[in-house]
Design a protein that fits this description.
With 371 residues, this protein is of the alpha+beta class. It contains four helices and 17 strands. Strands 4, 5, 6, 8 and 9 form a five-stranded antiparallel sheet that branches. Strands 1, 2, 3 and 7 form a four-stranded antiparallel sheet that branches. Strands 10-11-12-15 form a four-stranded antiparallel sheet, with no helix packed on it.
Length: 371
């Protein structure tokens, strides 16, 4: 009879007398290597597994993001009676919301309680921070360049790190660097005129270039008759015709020329003087900078420029719009050397004629002596 009741007890309460394997994992046992999850960052996922059974157990743990397996499954081996093991995998944080599933599988011996062999975390929403400055794109006034100070001098909503004109005075920061003016002050010298309209942005005493009135002086030239002037012009024309392959524009004075992309126009006022005009409709925030190819530049939309020497000069117009987008337009103007208004040419012709006259006079005197 006692043997019967003992066998009955083993049948009714088998777990109380037989060893069993029972591994446990919960959502609270899953953690990340960093508290702030930033989209695109590589982080590490840790999970701790407990063996609450009274038998040693081996198996493996798999991590999933949705239905996608994260890296390889990890082998575990836990002694009995409450011992723990911690495993991890590396994980690239996605841009959208996500959760993590940890799943215990392949236990040996088999786990008697499979209900606690998986853990699903709550949803995580990572921060999208392209420049990795700790400020999410939605709150970052310059999401493409790291600027955790969020400095915005002109309070235009665009941080200085991305703003090509920090003080919003119409001059780009690059131009202000060339002028040595303050890119964070619209009026560097405090004279009441903003730098874009101030010819001397670092001098509070001056704002405009004073026009120098040249006194008209009568040119001293050798006595010339009208016939002699015609001879000079004829010699100059002959010299010009003998020089081949000389690059020279065919435009006449006051004939309007347009740049290749119709961004600006120019006219020749005199043989070495041109007037350049921006044709595009630019906003108040746009900046146009002329480079005349001879070391002289200007930021005026319409400007007259005088070349001091002859040659081919590349004229470049660089435009920066209110969004900081830079575009350029270029053409080439020619200042001919052989022109009677070129004093060097005129003086050379006169000198040649004088030498010619001196030579003729010398031959005449030699002829008379021989007679």
């Amino acid at each position: 009879m006692k043997l019967f009741f003992f066998a009955l007890g083993l049948f009714i309460f088998p777990l109380s007398v037989q060893a069993a394997a029972d591994l446990v994992i919960s959502p609270q046992d899953i953690r990340f290597s960093q508290s702030l999850l930033v989209a695109g960052d590589e982080v590490r996922i840790y999970a701790k597994i407990y063996n609450v059974g009274d038998k040693d157990v081996s198996g493996y743990v798999s991590f999933y993001q949705g239905s996608t397996l994260i890296d390889d499954s990890l082998v575990i081996s836990l002694p009995a009676n409450g011992n723990a093991d911690e495993v991890y995998v590396d994980f690239v944080v996605p841009e959208g919301s996500f959760n993590i599933l940890a799943l215990i599988q392949g236990t040996d011996p088999s786990d008697v309680n499979s209900s606690n062999d998986s853990a699903l975390t709550s949803m995580f929403t990572p921060v999208v921070d392209d420049d990795r400055d700790g400020i999410g794109n939605d709150d970052d006034n310059c999401s493409s360049v790291s600027n955790n100070n969020q400095l915005d001098t002109d309070v235009d909503g665009q941080g200085d790190a991305c703003d090509s004109d920090d003080d919003n005075d119409g001059l780009s920061d690059d131009v202000e660097a060339e002028l040595n003016s303050n890119s964070t002050l619209a009026d560097t010298d405090g004279d009441g005129v903003e730098d874009a309209n101030d010819a001397f942005p670092n001098d509070s005493e001056k704002t405009q270039v004073e026009e120098v009135v040249e006194e008209e002086t009568e040119e001293v030239t050798p006595p010339q008759t009208e016939a002699f002037q015609k001879i000079v012009e004829e010699v100059a024309r002959t010299i010009q015709e003998t020089v081949s392959n000389t690059p020279e524009e065919t435009i006449s004075e006051n004939e309007i020329q347009i740049s290749p992309n119709a961004v600006f126009a120019y006219t020749r006022d005199e043989w070495n003087t041109f007037t350049f005009t921006v044709l595009t409709n630019a906003s108040d925030q746009a900046v146009s900078i002329w480079d005349f190819g001879d070391g002289v530049s200007s930021s005026k939309p319409t400007v007259q420029h005088v070349y001091t020497s002859s040659g081919a000069f590349p004229v470049i117009l660089t435009m920066t719009d209110e969004n900081g987008i830079i575009s350029t337009e270029q053409t080439t103007v020619f200042v001919p050397f052989f022109h009677l208004k070129n004093r060097l040419v005129l003086a050379s012709v006169i000198l040649l004629l004088l030498l010619l006259l001196i030579g003729i006079g010398s031959f005449a005197r030699l002829g008379r002596k021989r007679e």
